[in-house]
Amino acid sequence: MAGKPKLRYAKGRGRMESIRWLLAAAGVEFEEEFIETKEDLEKLRNDGSLLFQQVPMVEIDGMKMVQTRAILSYMAAKYNLYGKDLKERAWIDMYVEGTTELMGMMMFLAFQPADTKEKNLALMIERATTRYFPVYEKALKDHGHDYLVGNKLSWADIHLLEAILMVEECKPDILSAFPLLQ
C-alpha cells in the first residue's frame, strides 16, 4: 500500500487549499511539508522535483505532481469523485472551472492596493450573485438532487463549497437569495 500523499506548499491556503479539501472529502490522510524559506523552495527546484519550478507539489503514487488542476483531476479520479462517465466529468469540469474563476478573483483581492480592493471586492460579489451562484442554484433545482452532478458527491461540490466559504468571509449573507446552495 502506498504511503500518505505528501503536500508541499507555503503555510497558507492558496492553491493548495483545494487539494486539501479534496483529500479531506475523500477521507484520505495526508502529510504536509511547508516551504518556509527561499532555500526550501530552491532545494526542490534544484533537485528536479518541480516540473515548472513552482508549487504546489504533491507526492502521490510514486509521482511528484505539480499544477493544481492536474493534481485535482488525478485525485478526483483516484478517489471516485470525478463522475461515472465522460459526460459527468464534462459537467464536473465546467462547474469546477466556474468556481476556479470565482476563487481566483478572491485570492487576488489580498494582493491588491487598498484603492482598488473595494471596487474589485464589489465586482467579485456582483459576479458571484449574478454569474456563478445562479448557475449552481439552477443545476440543483433542475435535477432535484443534493449534488451538482448525478446524485453523488463530486469534485464539483467540494470546489463549490470551498468557493462559497471564501466569498462568505467577505459577505456572510451572500447566499440569502440561493436557498439550495445554503
UniProtKB/TrEMBL annotation:
<dbReference type="GO" id="GO:0004364">
    <property type="term" value="F:glutathione transferase activity"/>
</dbReference>
<feature type="domain" description="GST C-terminal">
    <location>
        <begin position="85"/>
        <end position="182"/>
    </location>
</feature>
<dbReference type="InterPro" id="IPR036282">
    <property type="entry name" value="Glutathione-S-Trfase_C_sf"/>
</dbReference>
<dbReference type="Pfam" id="PF02798">
    <property type="entry name" value="GST_N"/>
</dbReference>
<dbReference type="InterPro" id="IPR010987">
    <property type="entry name" value="Glutathione-S-Trfase_C-like"/>
</dbReference>
<dbReference type="InterPro" id="IPR040079">
    <property type="entry name" value="Glutathione_S-Trfase"/>
</dbReference>
<dbReference type="InterPro" id="IPR050213">
    <property type="entry name" value="GST_superfamily"/>
</dbReference>
<dbReference type="Pfam" id="PF00043">
    <property type="entry name" value="GST_C"/>
</dbReference>
<dbReference type="GO" id="GO:0006749">
    <property type="term" value="P:glutathione metabolic process"/>
</dbReference>
<dbReference type="InterPro" id="IPR004046">
    <property type="entry name" value="GST_C"/>
</dbReference>
<keyword id="KW-0808">Transferase</keyword>
<dbReference type="GO" id="GO:0006805">
    <property type="term" value="P:xenobiotic metabolic process"/>
</dbReference>
<comment type="similarity">
    <text>Belongs to the GST superfamily. Alpha family.</text>
</comment>
<feature type="domain" description="GST N-terminal">
    <location>
        <begin position="3"/>
        <end position="83"/>
    </location>
</feature>
<protein>
    <recommendedName>
        <fullName>Glutathione S-transferase</fullName>
        <ecNumber>2.5.1.18</ecNumber>
    </recommendedName>
</protein>
<dbReference type="InterPro" id="IPR036249">
    <property type="entry name" value="Thioredoxin-like_sf"/>
</dbReference>
<dbReference type="InterPro" id="IPR003080">
    <property type="entry name" value="GST_alpha"/>
</dbReference>
<dbReference type="InterPro" id="IPR004045">
    <property type="entry name" value="Glutathione_S-Trfase_N"/>
</dbReference>
